[in-house]
Amino acid sequence: MYTQSFSVSDEPGKQQKAVLSTESPELMARFDARIDADGRIEPQDWMPEAYRKTLVRQISQHAHSEIVGMLPEGNWISRAPSLKRKAILIAKVQDEGGHGLYLYSAAETLGTSRDQMLDGLHSGKAKYSSIFNYPTLNWADVGVIGWLVDGAAIMNQVPLCRCSYGPYARAMVRVCKEESFHQRQGYEGLLVMMQGTEEQKAMVQDAVNRWWWKCLAMFGPPDADSPNSAQGMRWGIKRVSNDDLRQKFIDATVPQAKVLGVTLPDPDLKWNEERGHHDYGQIDWSEFWDTVNGNGPCNKERLSTRVKAHNDGAWVREAAIAHARKQQQRQIKEAA
Ligand code: BYC
Fold this sequence. Notes:
Elements: H1 14-21, H2 25-36, H3 49-68, H4 70-74, H5 83-108, H6 114-122, H7 139-157, H8 166-194, H9 198-217, H10 229-234, H11 242-260, E1 270-272, E2 277-279, H12 285-295, H13 299-312, H14 314-335
Antiparallel strand pairs: 1-2
Helix pairs in contact: 3-5, 5-8, 7-8, 7-9, 7-11
């Protein structure tokens, strides 16, 4: 199966059982008690190997999503319609790079090096969010990514601020503050376009039509088909299930679409008084899995751009290491 390079075994329960059997019952009991009391696990604390692996899998995937997520919007920096929009977009794309760095650092506290994680991404073994494998065709896509993609990301990420693993939870607090600015700048950009010409309004509607369903799929497979959810929730890594987050996102977005003056492309979308939620239509899961498995419209392009950027940046990494070595030698000399 195509999977994360650092995920637990593909054979359900196998690796976990093997590892747990070698782990001390007292340590395990102390860990479980801390989780049950809604306490935090820190890098120096003992943790079961499967918990560590699950975190590395999720945090590294999250970090990869942030840095691959810079690409679809980065394409528009040189074509932004005004200096103001260009400055906002540069700041946003730069923030995403920063989010990737916080997250790689959080994953490093679990004993996996950044080089290992990047090898996983560049070799195509590690996953990143499906959403970044679709093209950005017009300027309204930048607004819609801010409004819907960042909006979905916030919905998913706010509960992660309460994740049981301290470094991940703390990184998410800062990420969420910045994501909230990203979401607002997108929505504001779209509000301006919707007060413009008929052509501008049509661009916004077209972008909404193309991104809506992909954003719903971003939350991951339905709970019944989500192999990692039960354990992730037991460990306090995930706090809200994929389907519940998806529903919260839909309920929050429908009134925003109304204010904006766009239609969400789902004839089955309607308020259900009994459930107190919106009903919605069928998500195309086979298209989602094709994309996750490397066959979406832009997977190859995204990966080759990332690999090229990494290779082109080799001299910067070498120079930084040489500089750090020089400084260290100087400090040793001064201390002698
Ligand atoms: N895309 O058992 P499940 C951003 C995988 S970036 C690809 O439900 P889990 C932004 C899943 O990994 C936002 N793969 O898994 C940046 C698993 O495969 P593996 C990124 C997906 O972990 C720039 C398999 O499907 N956010 O905000 O319990 C500009 C079964 O799924 C996806 C995060 O990464 C997907 N959409 O739940 C703008 C949040 N969905 O790993 C915006 C952190 C599922 O077993 N991650 N898969 O091989 C999470 O919250 C959880 O990992 C997920 C999945 C909800 C995504």
